[in-house]
Automatic annotation (TrEMBL), chains A, B:
Protein name stated in the entry: Aldehyde dehydrogenase (NADP(+))
Keywords per UniProt: Oxidoreductase
InterPro entries according to UniProt: Ald_DH/histidinol_DH, Ald_DH_C, Ald_DH_N, Aldehyde_DH_dom, Aldehyde_DH_Superfamily, ALDH_KGSADH
Domain of life, source organism: Bacteria
Pfam families the record matches: Aldedh (PF00171)
Length: 523, 523
């Protein structure tokens, strides 16, 4: 039997070529086989998306909100089968996946609220001034509109929250953009279940089926064809630096270049300030190792670097962290490829000059398992070698020992752009932290104090983005309310009769927050 | 004598290599010679900008607003010498340049008001929920911050409003980004005067001199070096498609790619609907030729294409337009290069299949003068030949005759992205216009009715941008309040002590419009 892994405009498609998921816990492929999409399917899905765009863009905002809510309902309606299949395809434990399902449906419902709130439209009305000298001022009205069909790439590490019905899909649909998603080949069964839920929701709210298509298959060529399709207007991606940069390059080469929002690479530095270290080195170590080893470190915000001025506090921290990490069991990684890349990355790190081991976790059993590890390096060695600053995706981290505050600052200055920077500070650390803030704010999209970078709140003020290479577009976030802005463009209407205006711009714009003649007016 | 054409961090620089402006009315170079910047000057200017960034970004918003107002005052303080020099360097008439000076200083003062209004910061505060289950919610605060030093390229056709102190510079400074501008080599004297005014204003409000530098010289290598400098965080450009695309490509090739906001190419289609044509063909023709020939058509929003269903109305329009255009005198173009490119573009148009001449204006005298022209083509020939859809910068335009509404729609569908689309409509044209709106809104950043696209209001709701190739980034505008958004990025602070927060985020954010726990709150 072939399960139809993919859907074009709501219709399941079968093909002769198939592929199977791998159960990383068991180390072998699992049934059923799934249909493999090819370039002709990409074209059909994009044609359907383009054909659906107008109707979707012009549909009432309430329809978009109900679509998002109905998707959440349909996902919940799948029940435990979703979790069971997700466990088999990802090796992630049940509580983590149940939590992620809640995050995913919560995110969809949040974007329904965002859509209804309407502030994202950024409505602006400048009244006509017919008597202005030397020339009259026309009536000008501005609204943000959807860009067009969006290509989304499912990520492996959040098989629900950053995959078929994840943040990119939710925010693109919220913006009024049809979505063509390339499901991650590591979880085709999960993708098919969630894709089916979305297709049902699209039909239930009466939108054209082309608003959503799901493609699937193990080849990179599929993703390339999707990015190159002339109907695609933007791309959302979460994954490796190499993968993200390849999409950026493809998109730039198109006859009509399009924006790519690729969330790619971050090592998430944590800075331990002296007073915090003196007061609570052991508690910091416990929190750090907990954050580092959660989900085998397969998180974009995993704390891969720790910086501190060397001394007794850092020695206590390092010893506690080493003890905690040594007790960490081996972990099943998401795919054999990720496990292999992790081993390669750790080997590269240990082969670098001045890197010494603080601890290793329990030894792994089998190709898909991996061993947590913790290393240390001096700041001069860290500064001298760019490769020790690269992300190793998984549960490994590097403690950078700095001789003094100046060396700490120098080590931070060589960092690339990051999703997060974490400060562990006590009140006495205030002046030292303040001195670093202007540098740190240029390095990251989120700065946090006395917490750990893992755990990204889905909220109005969240920024899950950051300067290159954390993302390909440091002006954006892929989580939180602001994620919708990625898929919008401003359009101005000048002296346009009301019958030709979008409904939200006709009349005085009441019902939405808006800027009228340069003054903000409440809904 | 060498006039110092350029300034690095407020200091005039002299060099042995010099260049001179050309007076396009007289057809020869004019004194004085100006210093030519080289790559070492680019580096010095960018180092100064990067060094000034922190102080500028952290300076009170009121300082930014006063900077913008002081620049406007200083420009006005130059007095008539500015206009006299501008006339000599551009061949543009005095009233046009005086109007443009008013637009430029008005724009600077508008951005001062935008800065003070503060909505661009998009402040968001999510209160901590310490008792939330299963995990507490942290305190999250978001603000938009400046990207970093911005490279601006002065345009030739608006030597004040899109040049040294033009919209790109004003909006970048408003965002808190230092500016390094490459002045357009066609007006070095004007650039030096305006650059001096900005440098004086920077000093007057007590900001570091590195906030502004002006480079100058005739070579493209200078601009390339500027875009490639690692300290530059974004680029603003108005000019040719070829020039803009070259900068986009350079920026994408950097180790750290950066956004390029290039406003490049637009033919600004005008659609004459049947009822409007029947009622007022002659008045439409007069308005059209006036818009087409203003400033010798050297405007980004020049109406280069007219579409209508063929018939008696279009015949009346074409005859009236031909008569009006035949009476247009020759015009001095901005530079010999622009005049030559215009002749080449018109020759290419006349060499295309099915293009016939409706009228030519008076014959030009001399290399810098050009002749207005008007052509017509059938919709099938228009659809078959991509080259007739390319922008010819100057006072020439093409009337596309369509057999019926379906052919009109097909001809519009092949258009590339545009800055503007204009509809000439009477009430009876409503249904036909409504049917086209979904297509038109995908083609342009501004849709206007019963006016002409030239004349871009500097206002809160203006969009002077559009899908590629109108601009390299269809999510942006280079004119109006929204232009500031191009130079900002969001930063989130999580559980950050008040002493480490930007002042606008400490406390409850009062004083600014903001989103608190998902609800908008007045200043």
């Amino acid at each position: 039997m072939t399960l139809e892994a993919f859907l074009i405009a709501g219709e399941p498609v079968t093909t002769s070529e198939t592929f199977k998921a791998v159960d990383p816990s068991l180390g072998h492929t699992i049934d059923p086989p799934f249909a493999v999409s090819d370039e002709s399917h990409v074209e059909r899905a994009c044609i359907a998306a383009a054909a659906a765009f107008e109707a979707f863009a012009e549909a009432p905002i309430e329809t978009r909100a109900r679509l998002l809510e109905t998707i959440a309902d349909e996902i919940e309606g799948i029940g435990d089968a979703l979790i069971v299949r997700a466990m088999a395809e990802t090796g992630l434990p049940r509580p983590r996946l149940e939590g992620e399902r809640g995050r995913t449906t919560g995110q969809l419902r949040m974007f329904a609220a965002v859509v209804r709130e309407g502030g994202w439209q950024d409505i602006r009305i400048d009244s006509a001034l017919p008597d202005r000298q030397p020339l009259p001022r026309p009536d000008l009205r501005m609204i943000k509109r959807p860009l067009g069909p969006v290509a989304v790439f499912g990520a492996s590490n959040f098989p629900l929250a950053f995959s078929v019905a994840g943040g990119d899909t939710a925010s693109a649909l919220a913006a009024g953009c049809p979505v063509v998603i390339k499901g991650h080949p590591a979880h085709p069964g999960l993708s098919a279940m969630v894709g089916g839920a979305i297709a049902k929701a699209v039909a239930a709210v009466g939108l054209p089926a082309g608003v959503f298509s799901l493609l699937a298959g193990p080849s990179n060529a599929l993703g390339s064809a999707l990015v190159l399709d002339p109907r695609i207007a933007a791309v959302g991606f979460t994954g490796s630096r190499q993968g993200g940069l390849a999409l950026v390059e493809l998109a730039a080469r198109r006859p009509v270049p399009i924006p790519v929002y690729a969330e790619m690479s971050s090592v998430n530095p944590v800075i331990l300030f002296p007073a915090a270290l003196a007061a609570r080195a052991e508690a910091l170590a416990a929190g750090y190792v907990g954050s580092l080893t959660f989900s085998a470190g397969q998180l974009c915000t995993n704390p891969g670097l720790v910086f501190a001025v060397d001394g007794p506090g850092l020695a206590r921290f390092s010893e506690s962290a080493a003890n905690a990490l040594a007790a960490a069991g081996p972990a099943t990684m998401l795919t054999p490829g990720i496990a292999k890349a992790f081993r390669t990355g750790v080997a590269k790190l240990t082969g670098s000059s001045g890197v010494t081991e603080l601890a290793r976790g329990a030894a792994p059993a089998g190709e898909c398992q991996s061993q947590a590890s913790l290393f240390t390096i001096s700041a001069p060695d860290f500064i001298a070698q760019a490769e020790v600053r690269e992300e190793v995706f998984g549960h490994t981290s590097l403690v950078v020992r700095c001789a003094d505050q100046a060396e700490l600052c120098a080590a931070l200055a060589v960092l690339e752009g990051q999703l997060t920077v974490t400060l562990q500070i006590d009140p006495d650390d205030g002046p030292a932290a303040r001195a670093l803030m202007p540098l740190l704010v240029q390095k990251a999209g989120r700065l946090l104090a006395n917490g750990w970078p893992t755990g990204v709140e889905v909220a109005p003020a969240m920024v899950h983005g950051g300067p290159f290479p954390a993302t390909s577009d440091g002006r954006s976030t892929s989580v939180g309310w602001l994620a919708i802005d990625r898929f919008l463009r401003p359009v101005c209407y000048q002296n346009m009769p009301a019958a030709l205006l979008p409904p939200a711009l006709a009349g005085d714009g009441a019902g939405s927050w808006r800027l009228v003649d340069g003054h903000r007016v409440a809904a």
